[in-house]
Amino acid sequence: MRGKTQEVLLTLLICPVRGCGEPLERRERALACPRGHSFDIARGGYVNLLQPQDRRSKEPGDPREAVEARRRLLDAGYGEALLSALLEEVRALGLPAGATVLDAGCGEGYYLGSLARELGAEAHGVDLSSAAIALAARRYPAGTWVVANADRSLPWAAGAFDLVLSIDARLNPAEMRRVLKPGGRLLVAVPAADDLVELRAALLGEGVLRDRLEGAAGRLAAEFEMEGRRTVRDRARLGPDEVRDALAATYRLRESRRQAIAGMDVTLSHDLARFLPRFKDKIAASDGRFQRSS
Question: How many domains, in total, are found in the chain?
Fold first, then answer.
């Protein structure tokens, strides 16, 4: 959260305190709303807006071990096929210059940060894991990075974004629709049925095939309609270290510690879909203040 651009971006953020929703403004090393609620900006450049009632544990979200394992895999190039497909989809949308993009459940920021660099977009990422957001802010300092529980609410003004991303993350349909501009889009990527099927078979004895996108589309149906879908598929060789990272990054920590699995060829695949929002309300504004709309 650095530089002159960030002073503009901060006006999109709203106070997460229940019943408030006033715009947040930069005040030295903190963000504050007109009602006096204040949130310190971490030394790493991100802000923690997580409210006490929105945390389920002392250290919510992905643990550092899983976050760092995912970063190593992405740095090694295992996310390039999906990133290329995301770039194609976003370019096809013809977004305006400097478009605002939110990644809800951004993790360590690889996809959002890379898209923003390529497209010149304004990047906003939110995740429950402070470890993930700290890594994102360090790698992509031009973005706005926020710790918050996106399952509960998104601390941005209504109609703030041209595009919302959800990549291997949980969905909050009503909030995603609320923060989209009229005519904006939602891009959703979920692991395809055969993603890491070889590794799952070696670990569990069988590689169950399940269409996750169908379930995601069902959860989104009241707020969004699907415009199109595609499958992104790649093959890769994972060495023993990459296998351990893949297990850690996909929440197989106990199994990965118990079993030693040699390197193997695996399928990397995602189902990627584009959704158009069913807008039922518009940005609510009163006396120049941003308001949450239900």
Answer: 1
